Amino acid sequence: MKYKALLREPRIIVLLAVIAIACILVINFGLHFGLEFEGGIRIPISLEKSVNPLVMSDIINTIKVRVTKYGMSQVNVKGIGNSEVYVELPHGDARQLDEIENILKQQGKFEGIVDGKVAVTGADMMPGSIQESQPTTQGTDVKWAVSFAINQDAARKFAIVVYGKANYPVYMFLDRYEDSIVVIKRSDLLSTNTSISEAEAVRLLEKAGMKENDSIKVFIEDDFSLINQTIASLNSTKKIAILSQAADPPVVKALQAMNYQVINKTPDEMKPNFYVAGDEGVKLNGWGAINLLSAPVLSTDITQGRVNQFYEVNGFAPSTLSFDKKQAAAIQESKKLKSILIGGALPVRIMLGTPTTIPAPLGEEFLRYSAVGALASASAVSLMIFLRYKKLSIVLPIIATILLEMSLTLSVVGTVLGTIDLGVMAGVIGATGAGVNDQIIITDEMLGGRKEGEKEGRQIKASIARAFFIVLTVASISIVAMIPLLFSGLVEMMGYALSVIIEVIIGVTITRPAFGAFLEKLFEK
After folding, report:
1. Residues 462 and 367 in one domain
2. What residue ranges in 231-362 does DSSP mark as E strands?
3. What percent of the chain stands above pLDDT 90?
4. Range of the domain at 95
């Protein structure tokens, strides 16, 4: 066989290019293995109260969906007793852990409030309609957005609540604090580049915090010595006080002495997002202190009784960041919000404990056994192929193709898509059989064509065409069969389905065409 001519074959060039890309990915990013192989991090979660098994199952499934939708390909969530949950994640960097913790802290209760009345909630959203948008630039600001649709009954209720309220804001909250107060520094209150007065700023913030039979009061921390008696005399049941992480320690101690639960927010979260709306003056778009995501204004046509099912939640990345970091922050915010909304609201409040490192069940030994299993599978198949064809010139390319497909699949999953867990390994080993079957079909078609005595000019092309028609049909069936598992919500099965689909696609588009090219040259000889 003329190997130089083979290296000029486009299908072989594509294969070599893909192998080179896979090697670069592995060298630059490394392979990310799951909990079974490398251990990970455990985040303990305490529930506000004890729950029954049905509610515990709901909590576990909600947390699984939230974290996996955020991008983690493997997560173990298990209930401990009736009041505690363990979330176990593969090893990641500190930033990733912080982001996952922020997702878990959210209760997930979404509310859209108009003039103090709840117009829409997270329960009204249609599954599958929640979509994140690419960040958009407005001057020096970077805006993020998440869109969703609500069901018909909710849309009719929304139309009734907003009727006649043109130009009113829809205050969109995620986990709004109930029956609480905000003690804010004057410098944070007036931090935006607007000409708003202190009194008007407080009025807008308290208006945003209004809800039927509930309100959020706003106080200036700088004047605490003058207002502490007023705060102490409030008829508050929850007794939640929201302050900046940079709040004065004496103020914090005084509030704790009044039995307030102090919740600390970052300086950026404490700064209200005011903006100038032309002739309409200053308006409020969002405020992290009370988890106000955005406040879009109702257009006139929406407030005339027209039923609308499509809405958008949006906001801006922190203004203190550089432009590149704003872009990244906007992507993270929309991704996080989408994950929480898809996961739904937790039935009880939760409290996160301190993350701890957990060892792998079998560590390197477990990984070694998985590799041995994969090689044993490939070896057993290779033996059967050798007994069938009895020619190393045919058997060795088939074995090489098997190993290449397995390696390329693991490199894609382990570097780009997430982590290599047991489900992924099972999928890779399972898909090996389909790959070998395709190669046998290609080889038999070529051999069968020769035995039929066709003219050599047409023999190879006809055989390859017949073989690849069968191969593509089988591959399509395999992919379609895996799609229900991929979107079933069964987290444990998603890795299996994904690895099978990827290996089939790699085989059909890259390795099997290259194998066919090799056989063409072999049979020409």
Report:
1. yes
2. 240-244, 261-265, 273-276, 282-286, 292-294, 310-316, 350-352, 356-358
3. 11
4. 40-101
